[in-house]
Amino acid sequence: MEGQFSEKSDVFGFGILLLEIISGRRNASFYEEDQFSSLLGLAWKLWNEDNVLALVDPNIPVRCFEFELLRCINLGLLCTQESAKERASTPAVVSMINCEIVDLPRPKQPAFTARQLTHDIDPSGQSLKRCSANDVTLTVIQGR
């Protein structure tokens, strides 16, 4: 948020990556027609509703890995805490993954989950639909 990068920035990125792997969705795959502005916002809502396993990719057998999935989602949320001071260090994250730290703390609200989505409206009153263009582009270099 303030343009400062540190080990805690990497921890935040790891938390997002962990949630993306578990859910099978990209953090940037949320658009205005979705109720949430990000994967992190959805994960936080489901965590508070005690329904966080609904976040899991349908291709992952939840019954077989329920404990591990809950632990990884908890860790993902811990890594994405609003304040960098509240995020674990990289060695602590590794210890949590290896179950050397058995009891994980309950996460607080992660960063970037409190903002509201606004809908753009054109002059005729119609709602404008925004989408992401993540296509690959090719540039042809031509000599003079």
How would you portray this structure in words?
This protein is mainly alpha-helical. It is about 35% helix and about 0% strand. α1 (about 5-25) runs antiparallel to α3. The longest helix is centred in the middle third of the chain and has 18 residues, at about 60-80. The chain is globular. The chain starts with 6 loop residues before the first helix and ends in a 47-residue tail after the last helix. About 25% of the residues are buried. Mean pLDDT is about 80; it is low at about 115-120 and about 125-130.
Q: How would you spell out the order of helices and strands?
A: HHHH
Computed over alpha carbons, the radius of gyration is: 18 Å
**How does the helix and strand content classify structurally?**
mainly alpha
Count of helix runs:
4
**What percent of residues adopt helix (DSSP H or I)?**
25-40%
Shape: globular
Number of strands: 0
How many angstroms does the end-to-end distance come to?
44 Å
Strand content: under 5%
Average of pLDDT: 79
Largest sheet: none
Which ranges are low-confidence, i.e. pLDDT below 50, for 5 or more consecutive residues? 115-122, 127-132
Summarize the structure.
The protein is an all-alpha fold and 144 residues long. The chain has helices at 7-23, 39-48, 62-79, 90-97.
Characteristics:
37% helix, 4 helices, globular
